[in-house]
Amino acid sequence: MLYIPCPHCGFRDETEFTYGGPSHVTRPELTTSDREWTHYLYHRSNPKGPYRERWIHSYGCGRWFNVLRDTGTHEILEVYLMGQSGMDSANRGNP
Amino acid sequence: MQRYSLRNVLGHALRGNSGWKPAWRTPTLKSTYDVVVIGGGGHGLATAYFLAKKHGVQRVALLERGHIGQGNSGRNTQVTRSNYFYPVSSSFFDHSLKLYEGLGRELNFNVMLRQGGQINLAHSHHELEIIRRWANAILMNGVDAEILSETEIRKLVPILNPHPRFAIAGALIQRRAGISRHDAVVWGFARGASAHGVDLVQGCEVRGFRKSGDRVIGVETSHGEIQCGRVVMSVSNQSSLLAGLAGFTLPTTTTTLQAMVSEPIKPVLDPCVISGAIHAYVSQSDRGEIVIGGGADVYNSYRQRGSVAITRGVLAAALELFPSFSRLKLMRQWAGAVDITPDTSPIMGLTPVRNLYINCGWGTGGYKAIPAGGDTMAQTVVDDKPHPLIRAFDLARFESGALIDEGAASGVAH
Q: B186 with B325, same domain?
């Protein structure tokens, strides 16, 4: 069971949240190649280690936020608001 | 290879069982091979087996980072079925089921296949309509399927909840579906592969690929460099990481699927019973344990443990179907890290790197595909073009848009 620190409500059980997949995925221009578009739609970095992802506190404040979480240990390294890019620049950027 | 037979068992028993040799050799790694198979799970072992046995490839190495069968091949719920919706899936998985039906004889190893059938429950008129459509699709694909009434279901599964909260409207059954012993499948393929000359090397990690232009010419391992003609990646949840080392990306995400077993009891449940709506599937192993599975964790994870929240949900669902199981002690709970694709169908065949082949993306259902996965991948490697049964499962389908969306025909909704 993850114990997630919502930036607005504090620590809550994972069951209060809904997962939103990877953060910071940028939609390419519509004129882009099929290959680029496929990459945007489907291909994910899927690392074993720090991973930037979005969560929504569905059964709480109902707000989205970003989490930097280690997929190998489940340790939550950082939580930051939507629109922000996160502090730990070494681990910045999923695909 | 020492054959297993009644005569041999009796003969060895008379000599105090001291004459049994190890089931497979422990070779040292050579520096050159024709084909290197990465990953000692069911799919990798089956691929190596068929390469050596069916196609006579002389020098095959199988590299496993840990021990064989310790990943998802040792963490599944041993269900085998071919009740898929789309013709391409159906023909592949039925080929696999047919191979399972003859696997004990093929490998001279009892894989304990018991075809007790698989029942998919419908809990409403609408769900029954969907299941009817599904059954018709299966029949059109030339695979067996029947619709059962509630009376017929209760005759087959007398311990089903007599007063279910969600009424039972009917069910789909594939009678040829069943369970087998997963360790036996792994050991049988390992023993067979070794007997046909495959070098099974455990504790050997692949750390990189040697490439010349756009083709792979070798692998870098913890035991040194190996030159090889062709390489097969069959590494499940590690596929993204290994593809990264080879220089391409995959559309897979790694997440956790868990399962659990109760203490062993006398036989009470012959078929595997699935409810997509209540979200659990339950079967009984030949050892008597009640085997319970259900939903996957929602977030990316390599942790192989599973969230307690999911455990709780799956158990509640299983007890809704079988309230009498609430008296049982839960003996073990475990999880596997599974690689899930956007359309929940596997990725098999060629990769952007020449002479490198991939078999991954099995998500929540790779066990049932082991023999066919090995058979078709071996052929693909030998021909350097996809086997007809797996042509539709290629990596390029995500770019062309020809997805095979089998999510609806999955055992439970994922």
A: no
pLDDT band at A88 (very low <50, low <70, confident <90, very high): low
* Chain A contact present for B402, CB below 8 A: no
Residues B382, B50: contact at Cβ < 8 Å? no
B116-138 pLDDT, tens digit each: 999 999 999 999 999 999 999 99
Domain span holding position B368: 26-78+182-250+343-409
Model confidence at B146: pLDDT above 80: yes
| Residues forming a β-bridge with B333 | B260
Residue of A nearest to B255 (CA): A71
Q: Compare CB distances from B254 to A35, A46, A74 and report the shortest one's residue.
A: A46
CB spacing of A44 vs B253 below 8 angstroms:
yes
Beta strand B60-64 with B32-38 is: parallel
For residue B62, the Cα-to-chain-centroid distance in whole angstroms is 18
B258 interfacial to chain A (CB closer than 8 Å): no
Q: Is residue B414 very low, low, confident or very high in pLDDT (cuts 50, 70, 90)? A: very low
**CATH code: domain of residue B67:** 3.50.50.60
Question: Whole-angstrom Cα distance, residue B82 to residue B91?
Answer: 8
Q: What is the CATH number of the domain that holds B156?
A: 3.30.9.10
- Among B320, B340, B360, identify where a domain stops: B340
Q: What is the pLDDT of residue A87?
A: 73
- Residue B412's pLDDT band, with cuts at 50, 70 and 90, is very low
pLDDT tens by residue, B285-313 = 999 999 999 888 989 999 999 999 999 99
Residue in B240, B252, B309 closest to A1 by CB:
B309
Nearest to B300 among A51, A73, A95 (CB): A51
Whole-model pTM: value is: 0.95
Q: Give yes or no: residues B336 and B188 share one domain.
A: no
Q: Where does B331-385 have alpha helices with state H?
A: 370-383
Burial grade of B76 (CB within 10 A; 0-12, 13-18, 19 or more) = buried
B7 min Cα distance to partner chain A (Å): 50
Q: Are residues B172 and B281 in the same domain?
A: yes
CATH number at residue A73: 3.30.2270.10
Residues B320 and B191 in one domain: no
Q: Domain ends where: B340, B370, B385?
A: B340
Are B160 and B187 members of one domain?
Answer: no
